[in-house]
Fold:
Amino acid sequence: MIPPAAIRELEAATSPERVLSAYEDLLVFEYDGTIERGTPTLVVLPDDANEIAAILRIARKYDLPVIPRGAGTGLSGGAVSAVGGILIVMTRMSRILEVDVENQTALVEPGVVNLELSKAVAKHGLYYAPDPSSQRACTIGGNVAENAGGPHCLAYGVTTNHVLGLEIVLADGSVIWTGGEARDLPGYDIAGAVVGSEGTLCIVTKALVRLMRTPESVRTLSAIFNSIEDATNAVTAIIGDGLIPAALEMLDHEIIQAVEPAFHVGYPLDAGAVLLIEVEGLVEATDEDGAKARSICLENGAREVREATDPVERERLWAGRKAAISAIGRIVPNYYVLDGVVPRTKLPEVMARVGEIGAQYGLPIANVFHAGDGNLHPCVLFDERKPGESQRVLDCGEAIMRVCVEAGGTITGEHGVGLEKRNFMSWIFTDTDMDAMRGLKQVFLADDRFNPCKAFPTSKGCGEVHSGAIQRFGADAAI
Amino acid sequence: MATTTRLSAIEAALPSDALSLDVHGYEVDGAPPLLVAKPTSEDEVAATLRAASESDAAVVALGSRRHLGLGMPPSRYDVALDMTKLDRILEYSPADLMVSVEAGVLLSELEKTLAEKGQWLPLDPADDGTIGGMLAANRSGPARMSFGSARDLVIGMKVVTATGDVIKSGGRVVKNVAGYDLAKLHIGAIGTLGVITSATFKVAPLPVEMQEVAFTGTSQSLMSTALEIRNRGLAVTGLTLSNSLQGWQLLVRIAGGHAAVARSRRDAELLASRVGATVAEAVEPPTEGVVIARASLPPTSVEAVAESIASNGASVVSYPLTGTVRGYWQDAPSAADLASLRGISRVGGGAFVIEAAPVELKQQIDTWGEPGVDFELMRRLKQQFDPKGTLSPGRFVGDL
Structure:
């Protein structure tokens, strides 16, 4: 329960229309891109950093949890309210404040949609490189919180490689600028520590990001293979030959069954796997790199290698990849997208294990992933209305995560730890490691009220959020 | 071993051949330590720091000792922690473009190993040194414009804390968002938050072909050439703007496939000639100076600051597209001159750090400059990770 006095103070700090407490309003914010659900006690939509400072001071005064949220497209429960509290929705702060064309930077509010930023600077021949598949909806603030990746991160890096500075608000209401257009400013890299901190340290209210020049030439190829094994061998051969494409994505047979009818990309339904390869740069470079990629794919058993001949075709190929996961909705009612990373060279054996685990749990798995990075996204297909199915899905997911860690990888490549994997952290970090990380929370004055139950192993009061969701939609579902 | 009883715990923590009273060459700003500790493993580093913490001793971790001039003189200095014996390459997987090394490995040695497999770590500062030192000082070179700096290349790190705990962040894979990115804090921290014992990097394939061409002209024409090279996306992986007795020079490193390199060379020469810059014999820029200072700026401020530093009698070496401008003085400038250059850098949207200077000069002007608005967070960071001031006390920003 939130004391009425707190609500009045929040309304005074923002405005009554931007403080939501009616159940039907709260429901709208209880989800994200996963099967997690959590109803906040209150939702507040601030307009600027000063309002956020006031909200955080009020939350501190009344000892209330706070949860920052962007567009709610997250894939680890990071923006889902685990134990109630004040959900601070950042989407009204959506202005691009400054674009410095000569220095190739942009200063943006956290609610700016990722793709909208690139579109806005396109006229200057610039774009923002980190391109998560959800980029039509996800926000820069969310990207910063999760250190978001995307297909083009193979060549250009992830969000942290593009953030130059941040304005942040701490739990005590202090508004602090850190970093800047000049690199290597004296002192500790505070902004670097904030990126990827999953909203557990502070709230980001401005981001100064690096922009890149759009390349002279882009060539997009799709290579059709008979098996995942052939395709992963081609990936290893491409990288081993010294070619780092701008993007190197894989889709497997299962996911093609969803993607092809939805997008008519032209993938044969009997393909074992498809590799989507993109090379960028000068015309001379893309000619050479495209030819090299093509011949390597053919050498590794590709049935055929096609190339997009115009921007429309390129768009369609990418739509088929970026919307692949949402296309799953055509074939099953629910899916659970996993996010694991393994060293590239371990991909063949890990993909085989993923298949075995799916069979073991009786669950079909569709795979789409950033093959160049070793970042896999097995999608477990299921129907949550079937009794016991949701729990099996979670167990299957956990088994797959274990395989990734055993192969020398990690539990999350880009989606974050969030709610979903907080109890897996001890597989890869010792208590001492995690104590050091918790020490960082103290530096930022962020106690356990700051996005509770996220990113670190469960503390008292976090309960079992998963089983909450399962109970609501599982065996007792009336549908 | 005869040091004070205060250091006896440290002496007990290491085998006797890892300890030495011969402190010559370990001075920091002229001040020698009492003891040199030279551990051979991460565990020995941890034992040393644990003992140092218990003894209230002050430790400076060091490698090749090339950049010990960074920062203000230490307020206390008891133990030199020489990391050069942690010199193993721990794991190298060329197919995964990943290498993991101990902090005492020399960058040049690492590059030799990687080159055998047609790869390199795209970190190319002007001088050689240990990996740990490179990271602690956040050294970088011209390749930064294409590959980023240490913060972009490190994918995992192990650090020993001020109390002797070994902590890990990141991992062995290029995509990893598990846990806080603590490595970012240690890079550039000159060992004041922890001692780096090993780091894992993503490496890059060596280019098929590489050429260098130098142009001379005015700083303005060369700067505009650099920007045009960037704007046209030419296959250029390094740009160095420097001055000498012969005037200003832009050294352009072109790398990639044969056709891309040939095209980029032609285009670069054309762009240069349009602004009156001409191809010339490359002149080696300096790497030494009685005083060395570095301005960090947005690219659009580089030219003005570079000219100001040159007017003050220094040789300038700048990586214009990433905003680094370094001045090398053979005759020490006055504190007032340096303060003025700092002011100009600030107005240009950046900062000005003195990287090496005689102690007398450091007493007149702070090497780092005024701390920023985020200093309170930095102070709390230091307080959290090194509450007793065991690690290089007094050397960092704001006397941390």
Notes: The mean pLDDT of chain B is 96.
